Amino acid sequence: ADARLERMQPLQWPQRDALCGELGAGDAGRRVRLCGWVALRRSHAGLTFLTLRDSSGMVQVTTLPEYPEVYAVVNKLRVESVVSVEGVVRLRPTESINADMSTGAIEVAADCVSVLNSVTRSLPFPITTADTVKEKFPEEVRLRFRVLDLRRPQMQSNLRLRHKVIKHIRRYLEDRHDFVEIETPILSKSTPEGARDYLVPSRVQPGTCFALPQSPQLFKQMLMASGFEKYFQIARCFRDEDLRADRQPEFTQLDMEIAFTSMEDMLNLNEELMIHIFQEVGDIKLPKCFPRLTYTEAMNRYGTDRPDLRFDWELKDASDVFLGSSFKVFADTLENGGVIKALCVPGGAKVFSNTDLKKGTVYAEASKAGAKGLPFLKVMDNGELEGVGPLVSSLKPEKKEHMLEILDAKAGDLILFALGEQSTANQVLGRLRLFIAHKLEVIDTVSLSYQELPSLYCQHILGILMRHQ
């Protein structure tokens, strides 16, 4: 009975009194008790060193020769084992200071190490600061071992950043603009939306189902009618649609509504909110006024309502160039009320072969967007044009000069054409614009400073879309 009673006692975890990442030179001489994960173990000159990690950061733990029992425990540890360490903080020798660690000036000389949870086999992937895990290991492996994946510094940083953003959204809307945060129902009635609903069968009413909300649209309209003039929530939404880079079955969005307001007021509020978040979370100063494009402008210039402005390729209307053209495909298109749009790819003539453009990767991408063909021209070093034969021969000298001027095309550039209805031509070239930009690696995703990041509003569509690349 006593043994059973002893087993029923609450588990007594060692109570830590310090965090790894918060120790510094001012703590020298202080005795501490730490808990965390073994990020690294190495031996040198008869000593064993641990890099101990917790949610605050990392610190080096050193074994002492006068504690052989500690050395025996530490020497058997595998990376990612969970331990409790007791010891004294001391300054490192000058030559041993690690400038890459916030705690690099000190170490903890351990006189007691307890194993709380040991790793008994090799890990499926390393828990490393280098962002190579995502590249080398399939997503299925990372998801199967999600606990380990979430220990990676990048994942920790992502989730903590998300938390900070949401925290500052709440503070801004509540403290500065008197918004009320209200949770709306998750189980609700199915209503027509942009995608299919996820359905949850009702046990109480057999044969009926609840629908998971694609957005809180109806509920927030009810709140406005109920007298809650300023509402927001960090809303969970569910949409049964095909996966894409920017589509998931469930996602979180900032949802808000204001009564007695205008589109201009909402645009200004969102601008101020984004400026506040970037300033508070990332110490990044955004411009006070975001550029604005109408939906029509965005589609005509970039082929999408969420244009990537990190590179400045624009779609151009070349219909005037080909009025009265002897190239039958273009002439028929214009006679039937269609348009001829063009995209100039700087340096593209030297990168893409005729095969790529006639039946290869570029042509395949255009076909996915609805193109029935992909007319193209290459501006050669001598200024002559090459490409689709009948198209080249149809261009008289004055028309050729007019076209090159419109597109600002130079030697070595590639000119792609899309024809038909305006929407189709925009969609084809908009898709090719992104595809080729990624292919040529012209989008600088590394060195571009946040101050230069393009922000814009795309307005005059159903709702208001703001895109921050």
UniProtKB/TrEMBL annotation:
Biological process per Gene Ontology, one example term: aspartyl-tRNA aminoacylation
InterPro entries per record: Aa-tRNA-synt_II, aa-tRNA-synth_II, aa-tRNA-synth_II/BPL/LPL, Asp-tRNA-ligase_1, Asp-tRNA-ligase_1_N, Asp/Asn-tRNA-synth_IIb, GAD-like_sf, GAD_dom
Top-rank taxon: Eukaryota
Entry keyword set: Aminoacyl-tRNA synthetase, ATP-binding, Ligase, Nucleotide-binding, Protein biosynthesis
Pfam families: GAD (PF02938), tRNA-synt_2 (PF00152), tRNA_anti-codon (PF01336)
Keyword Membrane: no
GO molecular function: aspartate-tRNA ligase activity; ATP binding; nucleic acid binding
Keyword Ligase: yes
GO cellular component: mitochondrion
Domain Aminoacyl-transfer RNA synthetases class-II family profile as annotated: residue spans: 159-329
Family, similarity comment: Belongs to the class-II aminoacyl-tRNA synthetase family. Type 1 subfamily.
Cited PANTHER family: ASPARTATE--TRNA LIGASE, MITOCHONDRIAL (PTHR22594:SF5), ASPARTYL/LYSYL-TRNA SYNTHETASE (PTHR22594)
NCBIfam families per record: aspS_bact, PRK00476.1
Annotated protein name in UniProt: Aminoacyl-transfer RNA synthetases class-II family profile domain-containing protein
